[in-house]
Amino acid sequence: MKRRTVPGRLAVTLAAALVSAASAEPVGGYHVEYSGYSHGFLVLKLTGALSLTANEYDIQVAFQTAGVAGLVTHADSDSHAKGRFAGGQAQPSLFEASGHMRGTARVTRIVYAEGDPVVQALTPPVEQERSPVPAAQTRHTIDTLSAAALLIHQVGGAAQCDGSVSTYDGRRLATQDAHTAGQEMLAHSGRSIFAGQALRCEVTGHQLAGFIRGESQADLKRPRHGTVWLANMLQGGPPVPVRVSFDHRLLGQVTLYLTALTPSG
After folding, report:
1. First to last CA, the chain
2. Residue 84: which domain range?
3. Is 190 among the domain residues?
4. Fewer Cβ neighbours under 10 Å: the N or C end of the chain?
5. Which of 151, 144, 204 is nearest to 15 (CA)?
């Protein structure tokens, strides 16, 4: 992923690389399922679907709280993005999401005009919970799922994840930097279907704007760190995130383990 100079938003994104370099960019797709654990307890269930062609992408991610976290609070989200690749960058055409968070139903729909996000729907209005992000700061940003598709597309050919991305989801603006940390052997685990060598990528995100009212901006601005491991599990297909670890403000350190993989496309 090439470095962007525009301001941006924290990309809760997939950042990693293939175990071995590929001579061509990956084409194809898959459905994946994950279970997320924190402090040894199940807290999340997540599913995803990705479809890549040489020039286009379509990606969906859905999650909901589970286990101990599901007993304490309910949160769920279903999001979708699509667009095309051009000049080594993602050019989204649509981002939409719906779900529930903090007891409130949420809907987001963003389309893109000449590369800039245009918010068509946002429930609840951002002003009810956050300081609005100035429109000038959102220019040329991409959504979080498009950032994920871009990284997978890029590392499928380059076998590295070094770079920076800017994203905006209608509420938050931030930047995320990733760097390749080398290959690592993941041991067998009863929580995952994958064991073996994967490329490790370290990710650091910084929120820049769209802060929740009444909460500490110092805490919200604090860098958030994560790690993603990807492996080439499908011949000729896109790399698969086999494990993801990230710092969640409420749940603490969460690790997602791959529990199912089905090729598609």
Report:
1. 24
2. 28-264
3. yes
4. C
5. 151
